[in-house]
Design a protein that fits this description.
- By secondary structure, the protein is α/β, with parallel strands linked by helices.
- The protein is built from 18 helices and 17 strands.
- Helices cover 33% and strands 18% of the residues.
- The strands form 5 sheets. A 5-stranded parallel beta sheet has the order 5-4-3-6-17, sandwiched between helices. The chain has a 5-stranded parallel beta sheet with strand order 8-15-9-10-11.
- It is globular.
- The protein has 3 domains: 152 residues, Fumarate Reductase Iron-sulfur Protein, Chain B, domain 2 (Orthogonal Bundle), CATH 1.10.1060; 163 residues, FAD/NAD(P)-binding domain, CATH 3.50.50; 149 residues, FAD/NAD(P)-binding domain (3-Layer(bba) Sandwich), CATH 3.50.50.60.
- Helix 15 links the parallel strand 10 and strand 11.
- The longest helix has 22 residues.
- InterPro entries: 4Fe4S_Fe-S-bd, 4Fe4S_Fe_S_CS, DPD_II, FAD/NAD-bd_sf, FAD/NAD-binding_dom, Helical_ferredxn.
- One of its GO terms (molecular function) is glutamate synthase (NADPH) activity.
- Keywords: Oxidoreductase.
- Its EC number is 1.4.1.13.
- It comes from bioreactor metagenome.
């Protein structure tokens, strides 16, 4: 690629890359002049149709739209190097061009056993390096992934993927947590012949994919499609089973040859500003979980959400829908420290929240949740001048002379989540190597901890991102296999 948008360069890799067989050097392909610069528009529900419903808003590509979008790909492969799971993106896009979605599905499962899920909610960083984006718009890689997964019925997966039988070895692996990392590790370990038992404390698998992402973004039946195939391979999931309560961590060590912990980030963090201990101050992740479980959620006429990430946008948009259903109107404000250009939420989430009549107020720091006569009146904020210092550390500064006030009946905090590793008993925790902040350290290639039989990964190591979790679980599966192979 070049700063001159008319030039496309094929860059040789240090190690093997999809583009290594291309002719090296500078070249300009005249055929590229004929390629459409704009991506195929994705059809979605109009805001007026979706603002009081949890129906999925993205409709997906038709056959003709998928073929047209796939035809824009120049097959450079830079996307593969950027994808955390290193998916064979040009290869499955080529399968669409060849009208062979079954081959596309096989290619995706080589590196990602959650294509329906990732085809909807992947952060698609691969698209940021797409060479087509240097002259026009990048390829809609995420939507093409979804297209392939949608085209193959669940009933045909075993036949297409040839995953109906495995040579069983005598080793047993325990996976704690049925989120993206745990499910990915279970899939690839099962392929290697291991007996895999996944322990999940909630009544259904999926982790944050199910309990943290609203159904209008990720329908439950699509989560189930990916998970059901993993189960069909012989992976066992023990639901409503909490380690430390129902089964001790010591028992896992004694009963299994290796343990992979991927419990995710399910504990909301508080702002700790005055008033944050009021009973009408909620954690976003707790409310999203209740919505998924069908439990009652308090819906107030005026809601303020503190936070600028995807979880904040998810609860903002969910509350907007619930307000519309209950009151016929929306009055929810989401405020964040970050200005809009650096808000961590995906741009599409911010745009869609506004389309659904939510108010986004970036660049404000919470100072106090005002309480009068025992009731919340609103949130006092001051202008946030900067979020990070010159070293890149989180260290917000404020202009106390510029303030604002957002009226509210309830306040929802969404400033990040933490891990709960309390089920790892003190004796084991003391043996784990940690960094200066107390975070458990693991081998970056195998995710093996300082306890050789214990592997840890997913959000608790990498941070909250589904595709990183998928990649992490795959690497951990290889690490476990390497560890057990050396023990023989």
């Amino acid at each position: 690629m070049d700063t001159d948008p008319d030039n496309f360069r094929f860059i040789p890799g240090v190690d093997e890359k999809p583009w290594d067989n291309n002719e090296k050097g500078y070249k300009k392909d005249k055929d590229l002049e004929l390629y459409p610069l704009e991506r195929v528009h994705m059809q979605e529900l109009h805001p007026g149709e979706r603002d009081n419903s949890f129906i999925e808003i993205i409709k997906g590509f038709s056959d003709e739209e998928a073929l047209a979008e796939a035809d824009r790909c120049v097959d450079c492969g830079i996307c593969t190097a950027t994808c955390p799971a290193h998916m064979g993106i040009p290869h499955y896009i080529r399968a669409i061009r060849n009208q062979d979605v079954e081959e596309g599905l096989r290619i995706m499962y080589e590196t990602n056993p959650l294509p329906e899920i990732c085809g909807r909610i992947c952060t698609h960083k691969c698209e940021t390096v797409c060479s087509r984006g240097h002259r026009g718009e990048p390829i809609s890689i995420r939507w093409l992934k979804r297209y392939i997964a949608d085209q193959v019925p669940a009933s045909e997966y075993s036949e297409v993927l040839k995953r109906d039988s495995f040579e069983q070895n005598d080793k047993k692996i325990a996976v704690v947590g049925a989120g993206p990392a745990g499910l990915s590790a279970a899939y690839y370990l099962r392929q290697m012949g291991y007996a895999v038992s996944v322990f999940e404390k909630l009544p259904a698998a999926g982790g944050m994919m199910r309990y943290g992402i609203p159904e209008y973004r990720l329908p439950y039946d699509q989560i189930d499609k990916d998970i059901d195939f993993i189960l069909s391979m012989g992976v066992e999931i023990k639901y409503n089973t909490e380690i430390g309560r129902d089964i001790s961590f010591e028992k896992l060590q004694n009963d299994f040859d290796a343990v992979y912990v991927a419990t995710g980030l399910h504990v909301g963090r508080s702002t700790r500003v005055p008033g944050s201990d009021h009973p009408k101050v909620f954690q976003a992740i707790d409310l999203l979980r209740k919505i998924t479980l069908g439990e009652p959620v308090e819906v107030a006429e005026k809601v303020v959400v503190i936070g600028g990430g995807n979880v904040a946008m998810d609860i903002t948009r969910s509350m907007a829908r619930l307000q519309k259903q209950k009151f016929g109107r929306v009055n929810v404000v989401a405020t964040s420290l970050e200005t809009e250009d650096i808000m961590p939420a995906d741009r599409e989430e911010i745009v869609e929240a506004r389309e659904e009549n939510a108010t986004i107020m970036p660049g404000w720091g919470p100072r106090e949740i005002r309480i009068e006569d025992g009731k919340i009146k609103g949130l006092s904020v001051v202008q946030c001048v900067s979020v990070f210092d010159e070293t890149g550390r989180f260290n917000p500064t404020f202009n106390e002379e510029v303030s604002n006030f957002f009226e509210a009946d309830i306040v929802i905090e969404s400033i990040g989540q933490g891990a709960d590793l309390g089920f790892i008993t003190a004796g084991f925790m003391e043996q784990l190597e940690k960094d200066h902040r107390g975070r458990v350290l693991v081998d970056p290639l195998t995710y093996q901890s300082s306890l050789p039989w214990l592997f840890m990964g997913g959000d608790i190591i990498e941070g909250p991102d589904v595709i990183h979790g998928v990649a992490n679980g795959h690497k951990a599966a290889k690490g476990i296999d390497l560890y057990l192979s050396k023990k023989q």
